[in-house]
């Protein structure tokens, strides 16, 4: 299959279940909301070594938020529900409660499979001076803080979502792959329900499970040597085409397989529009590890 | 003491020793370096609940970096040296190695008290295909990745620095305190050797050790109720002046007491220039907990 | 009338007809589109002294643009249609054609009252090497440039819109008025069909027609002395309330009176949510100069 | 000559005299200063069709500004001194005076060859309520405005500088040339005394004087067809190498030939570090039009 002259390989992305939370961070201005959202989702690329996977999903204008202020929906994700709750407490408590003029609301809504009492636990920061209240239908806590008052919803919904949706952008050089990756991330950012948790949404250093080097067996993940352009003539099992010198990967987490599929579709389309892109493929483990297999060709039927 | 009509209270900030690393993150462009630096320093406000304290110290132009590309110096800090090394591995490995076009160099230089072999450990990601090399006087590793090559210095210097330098900005309303806090952070950003690890450099919700509410004794930190404007007429021990309705705190970590002092000085000066600011004070524990006592009045002698 | 405790004065904003163009600037990435949109709309606050009134209206995701790339809709406005065409030629020709990876499309669509042949005139830059083509239903020109190819639609629709929709935010100090103004601009940015052409969308120095000082009669506009807080006790006709020390104005241009009204409504609502805001009013000339009179109270019926 | 494997052509950039002003725009915060600086320098790429050439030169920390607030130095340039004064009046009056919390100071200092009474003329906006004052050695006016007070220095120094310093980046594709151009602009931004006036500092559509097409003789400038990759096999006089598919130009204005040379040097060096860049050349008119001839090879001796 070709799209805009770019080969779409007949393969699939292998993805995994993950617990997902969606938190709406509002603030006095869009800029202040973004500061909090950025801090709260930092150090959140992959649970291989980060304590959570996290990212900014989308902007919500003040006309559509519970408190009439601008906000960003962020996702915090973790394979274990108990760890997710822990991460939500820490990230909301340390990165949103501490940020200027913010409030935190549940944004999972009716999609939630379970409710975590994260706001209920955060309220203890109020030292007994906090107040339980209602904002529309939402149960909230008003916590007195030095700059005024922090509002958090009492419960935050979580659900089983999908982690590790992905595709690879192969291009004639690094910069073409990079600009295509940025274009893909831009396109994905307009899809509801998904995040691209890596820095700027882009993975520069895709990995494989374990190590091929017998001396490095202690490593749980090492560089995807088959896809490293500088190793094309060094390793026997290179899969880097002759005309490819730069590869970036996009990794997508989301609240559902449908959302992740839509993100992959618009992301791939966007990437194929950048001159110099040669091929799109995806990462999988032969179907042995992940629950979800998202075939690239199916996205465009 | 008054500066620009703002009262500077005769008190001191109580600060603590912390292990500090300084890492230079370079990239093809300033913007790409900032993406990596931001991700790597996220979720890094306070070790009360974050896994590290981290922030961007300053921009370094391409004419002054080892690889002639633009970069940002970040600091990652932790009270325990072993935990700092762990955090450096995770944050460089997950947030810089994975970010487009980056490289990581030691920026502590001669100030270092010890060297951590962080790059040496990161190299195992190369699965044996990495190469040891020299860049000027620096020992580096060249690790093949999907987008090209990641360069990391082998060792990163660390030293005992200072955490928790701080001051409080009291203003007639929340917005005046906020703009003053932003002005303070802007001023501090031009001081070498320091970071302001909270979101946007600002703390909206300063805390005290433990809880005053007997039912909340399980909490290690709760809201600084004496400094909450909404509790002025509620608690008996309020220290919020009558004309104050918003308070933000600035927290500073740095490589030395001198650097933190300089940051406090220029930050306080900047804050006093914003209309509506009434008073500057600082947080301490009566001198019982911290090694460092930085007197506000001494800063301006 | 009071909203969120803020007085809404019973007055009206007086606005004027203006010719409006809506241009969609696309680029390889959202960031590159914004660079071009920002340059093209700069030096475009008020036709009192700027050559046009211009601003960024909104972001358009790649799934909704003619070329499948992200873009921004900008508006360029001028009271005279011939001058508008001139400005469009100059701003597209110098600030979009010259910007990396951009294309320019009409975004007025069916709302247009007239078509200006701006793309047709820009094509001459191609020195005869340009090609006429179709992109969907749109007639475009492909102009060869050093970095590749610039695409511009042949014709751009214009219509009579509304300039000078406005409201004033009066607050207890400058920073409260400023943050409220920023919140207003954030809210307005989600309304289709409008721009806020001043720097950051905010007017710090509202003016009156002419001068009251007999020696300054040569001035076409001077400071709105009745609304200057520092002149409250200096001038006899001050209209600054006792508890007000900072005032910002928001000025709105748009494709229709309805769009401008909606912008004023959501902007005022947002401003009233910021602590310290006391009153909202609007600027008019007693109804003598402008075609449109937008009553503040009518917005909230 | 080769640098980092990139051919540096043995040619020269041809540059022109221009009148240059340097204005320091300060504000309550760095962000607010940048908003004003951006608006004031917009629509300011080339005097071919823009009313001025303008750009942001550099950030100045609050410790180094006359009012102790953060600021940006901008340059506004025009071949005619009278037109420059006109542009300064309009851009300061409409884009800085109107922007939140700003002040405007001369930043040309002792380098000035003449003083323009721009602040003196702006003061009339005060309608007689303005006050002449001193700030250190500087003569300033305090103009009452709705948001508080605007401070402008009375006189602004101007001098004969250099416009049109330039180089071309030829790369194997558009994205490599683009990222190299961004890297060049980043490097140049750390050189004192220069601006890169085009959008994002980059020219996507370099031009030649006049037209080669006999039917287009009315055009003063058309596409540089010899350097258009898509015309390589179309025109007889193409100068695009076989392996080049994207070319961006960097244009530099500055206060002196030395400053422009330094900018060209660091910019070219930065560009050569981006993979995929093949060649650096420069634009000239055979030495017939410009006063300055800056030889590329001389920069690296």
UniProtKB/TrEMBL annotation, chains A, B, C, D:
Pfam families reported in the protein's UniProt record: FTR (PF01913), FTR_C (PF02741)
Biological or metabolic pathway of the protein: One-carbon metabolism; methanogenesis from CO(2); 5,10-methenyl-5,6,7,8-tetrahydromethanopterin from CO(2): step 2/3
Gene Ontology biological process terms from the UniProt entry: methanogenesis, from carbon dioxide; one-carbon metabolic process
Keywords: Acyltransferase, Cytoplasm, Methanogenesis, One-carbon metabolism, Transferase
EC identifiers of the protein: 2.3.1.101
Ranges for domain Formylmethanofuran: tetrahydromethanopterin formyltransferase Ftr N-terminal: 1-145
Single annotated GO MF: formylmethanofuran-tetrahydromethanopterin N-formyltransferase activity
Domain Formylmethanofuran: tetrahydromethanopterin formyltransferase Ftr C-terminal, first and last residues per copy: 148-299
Annotated compartments: Cytoplasm
GO cellular component: cytoplasm
Catalytic activity of the protein: N-formylmethanofuran + 5,6,7,8-tetrahydromethanopterin + H(+) = N(5)-formyl-5,6,7,8-tetrahydromethanopterin + methanofuran
Top-rank taxon, per record: Archaea
NCBIfam families: one_C_fhcD, PRK02114.1
Subunit record text: Homotetramer.
Family: Belongs to the FTR family.
Role noted for this protein: Catalyzes the reversible transfer of a formyl group from formylmethanofuran (formyl-MFR) to tetrahydromethanopterin (H(4)MPT) to produce 5-formyl tetrahydromethanopterin (5-formyl-H(4)MPT) and methanofuran (MFR).
Name the record gives this protein: Formylmethanofuran--tetrahydromethanopterin formyltransferase
Source organism of this protein record: Methanotorris igneus (strain DSM 5666 / JCM 11834 / Kol 5)
Species classification: Archaea, Methanobacteriati, Methanobacteriota, Methanomada group, Methanococci
